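Cytochrome P450
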Amino acid sequence: MERRCPVLDTTGRDLHGETDRLRALGPAVPVELPGGVIAWSVNRHDVIRKLLTDPNVTKSARNHWPAFINGEIPPDWEMISWIAMDNMVTAYGKDHVRLRRLVGKAFTPRRTEAIKPRIAELTGELIDALAAVPPGEVVDLRQRFAYPLPARLVADLIGMSEEARVETAKVIDMMVDTTVTPEQAQAILMGWRGAMEELIAEKRRNPGEDITSDLVAARDEDGSRLSEVELTDTIFAILGAGSETTINFFDNAITALLTHPDQLELVRSGRASWDDVIDETLRVESPLAHLPLRYAVTDIELDGVTIPKGQPILVNYSAVGRDPALHGDEAGRFDITRQDKEHLSFGHGPHFCLGAGIARAVATIGLSSLFERFPGLSLAADRRDLQPLPTFIMNGHRALPVRLTAQVPAEAGAR
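Structure:
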């Protein structure tokens, strides 16, 4: 681990190229994270699948990362918010089972069905607002559609006001930015915890039909007592995970369809489904790239490479669907007709995404409504000029400029 190792690009300028280079170096490769922290990067589908179900791999820094336990990781480390959380995402063993059982009650198939009318309502509001844009005008579809649809829906689910959501969104955007300074990192941690504490206090005063109120009420249910920190951090995990990944999914799906008009036509003609689009987008452009962090409970052997006990592990979800060993030489090609669309964008094993059903419903309703309302939708920039988000954690663009209709009215001879 003391040998010189690659420094992970914090700007996210070439996520897929970097993944290919790291994959070629072996099943697990030490890389340098912000602050000089060393972690093992895994970029092969077989290794990732194995690690995600290995009981000797944990997400609990407070139990299994000696550097964190011993105070070697400073409180202003650039990625401190990802490891300081105490919720079902970072819990281990019995604590993980306890917390996941409590939160899982909010994400049943019945609740997914019940939320669909609200998804349709939010989608309609955003599309109506877009329809008021003058013909041919360039619109940032990420800011006007991809971002607010999932963000507002998840805020509804946890009972957060629109004003509070807008303020908290600024903190979440900074949290996934891997170019932040140590000072910013510390402010991020304080910011999201403060926002969640305010939300929980409000729900204690005025409970409603939302996940936060349910979790507050369930603190003593079946003897599964949530600590105040667990409650605070769990609500934030739902907000962050439910919004950021879906925002980037929409960004990537819309970009892929607009740059592959033949694929879009397959959906419009009924020869392919929106489910095909969803899974192929998640495969080739996973909205979540690297998720910090996991840790080795014991020494872990991987095809001749040993990850020592206590070392951090960085799983690259975006690497799975693009692994040639899984999907062949054309793994990077967007093709909604391919039979095998295997990906792990919703996770795998004990940490599989509880909100996957709701995410699919949002994706289906959102995409189908958008492309039905705006059949002339087109990119207003070359795809190569779209700027990536400044992060190696998420996979998306800073902006998605589009024209909702043809630049020149069709009756005037627009091509």
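Residues 5 and 28 are 12 Å apart (CA to CA).
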